[in-house]
Amino acid sequence: MASSNVKLEPPKRYEVLSSSKTLMAVLMFIGFVAFTMTVIKNPERAWSAYLIGLFYFTTLALGGLFFVAIQHMTAAGWSTSVRRLVESFCGFIPYAFGLTIILFFFGGPHLYSWFHPDIVAADHLLAHKASYLNKTFFAIRIVIFFGIWIYFAKRLVSPSISQDNKKDSSLTVALVKPSIAFVMLFAVTYSFFSIDLLMALEPHWFSTIFGVYCFGGMFQSTMAALILLIHHLRKRGLALGYITDDHLHDVGKFLFAFTVFWAYIAFSQYMLIWYANLPE
Asked: If you average pLDDT over residues 171-191, what whole number do you get?
């Protein structure tokens, strides 16, 4: 809720400063040139870096959509103003799909050994996993995952934006059921997405909690990004009265909780690997 001693002004549209646009354009150009040169000299390293960036920003977008869904599921009122910020994260999901397609066609052969039939044929374990780790099924899964995510991003965010004009609270109430459906599907799709893009880099390695590990990092990173965005908006005077210190405390509690959760999962996985390696 807004503070009683702050006079609320109509929300202003966020405009990126021209200096920021110039800086981002310069950095994008430098990044593109550096990536192109690295692809020529060391494609494995270039596509590994590409994969890390792709997975990180896709994770932020999906974390925003997950946060939106749980707010609708619980009919949370406190998060209405900050929910709008994470809704903007979801806009990257369609771009992430295009970038993942680029990774599949151009980076996949340099990253995933199971992309090569001759390697699979010579490796008993890879041959055993070939029904899952193969290019065709991998592509199908990617299309299904992003199809689900893009659908629910539009399904959950569009009515929220429409409510600004229609002033109809029933639009928000109607989002409870699709939010529940999304959360159940997201638990499966994000876990397999993490396995497909990251864990499959080492197909001889096994982990039963890798999806949970990535999920903990996803929510933690999303809350951290949200806090940074809130501070940026407040510094520019665009969120005064709408996003208060109480909101920051609540988001900070989420960040703290999932930092502990992520660390717990990470250490548990490390400890089991270390303990199992003792005989060796």
From this structure: 92
